[in-house]
Specification:
With 314 residues, the chain is of the alpha+beta class. Mean pLDDT is 93; it is low at 4-10. A hairpin with a 7-residue loop joins strand 5 and strand 6 (96-100). The chain has two domains: 1-128, no CATH class; 138-314, no CATH class. It has 13 helices and six strands. It is globular. Strands 3-4-2-1-6-5 form a six-stranded mixed beta sheet, with helices on one face.
Length: 314
């Protein structure tokens, strides 16, 4: 029986949430391997945060505070914010996707929530790599912060005028390369982007460059994966229950929209005003560029953990 059919009232899992969770796992099963080789082997524990309760799925050893229902669903009273959308080892390894319902998060709609879930599931693949946490620690960026919040709050010099000017030049070159349909002009645009990227990094200290590398590798490529999942899912047949959700949109429709939205977001990105948020559209656009430059680029992604620089060095 499906997750939807087996859900019982005792745990008060809303029907629409059950439909979405089921669809996420179906989508992951269908497209993950075609999007990224080896991804299908990555566990996908999920903590769904609703207004009153939290529901835990596919975690190997649920904490004692989670109570099991007859159908195997685990739930506890809510502890996390309903707006949360993150992946981390909330109960120890493996890392868990902790996410609210679509209307409470940035996703807003059910179909976009699915893509965002795949973004977070890709983080689970990143975190599952041997030596990942040691490599992050070896970056030496925390400055004593044991909470992990340095990942969001690192003192990167976003306000520096020279960096802002260089970023404007860099992003224009990247957008030009991503949008260039003619092969000869495309190759020239890529060379220009490489030059601008190298010039930007030279303005940073070694530590600042490590932080930027890490963010583009981790968050930028996870955003790219959202687009690639939508591409791979253009023939994905959603369940009838999912198509009946009032905010349903096909992933085929979302593919072109998500791609153009990302490049458009980069065109508007301001290093000074957006700060760390610029890495999402920046890194995702680099992913779009790499898929055209080298169809096999993903094979070396985990060979050079926490940095994309080797793809762009001269």
């Amino acid at each position: 029986m499906t997750l939807v059919a087996r859900t019982v009232c005792a745990q008060a899992l809303p029907h629409e949430d059950a439909v979405r969770v089921q669809e996420f796992y179906r989508l992951a099963d269908v497209v993950s391997e075609s999007v990224w080789p080896g991804w299908s082997k990555t566990p996908g524990p999920l903590l769904l945060v609703t207004e009153q309760q939290e529901f835990l799925f596919r975690f190997p050893s649920p904490p004692a505070e989670f109570k099991k229902s007859a159908d195997g669903t685990y739930a506890r009273p809510r502890k996390f914010p309903t707006t949360l959308l993150a992946t981390f080892p909330a109960f120890g390894p493996p890392a868990v996707i902790v996410v609210g319902e679509p209307q409470a998060t940035e996703a807003k709609s059910s179909s976009r929530w699915l893509l965002t879930m795949m973004h977070e599931h890709f983080h689970q693949l990143q975190y599952a790599q041997a030596g990942y946490y040691d490599a992050v620690q070896a970056l030496d960026l925390s400055h004593g912060d044991q909470s992990g919040m340095w990942i969001l709050n690192y003192a990167f010099p976003y306000d520096r005028p020279d960096l802002n000017a260089a970023f404007e030049t860099l992003k224009a070159a990247l957008i030009r390369a991503v949008n260039e349909p003619r092969e000869e002009q495309f190759r020239a645009a890529v060379r220009q982007y490489k030059n601008e990227r190298v010039a930007f990094v030279k303005l940073l200290s070694a530590e600042q460059a490590r932080y930027l590398d890490f963010q583009l590798w981790q968050e930028g490529i996870a955003r790219y994966v959202e687009i690639d999942v939508a591409r791979a899912a253009q023939d994905f047949r959603a369940t009838e229950e999912f198509t009946k959700l009032p905010d349903y949109t096909s992933l085929a429709e979302l593919f072109k929209a998500r791609r153009s939205e990302t490049v458009n977001e980069l065109s508007k990105a301001s290093l000074k005003d957006w700060k760390r948020v610029v890495v999402y559209s920046w890194g995702a656009s680099e992913g779009l560029l790499l898929e055209r430059l080298d169809p096999h680029w993903k094979a070396t992604y985990f060979q050079y953990p926490l940095s994309m620089r080797h793809y762009w060095s001269e």
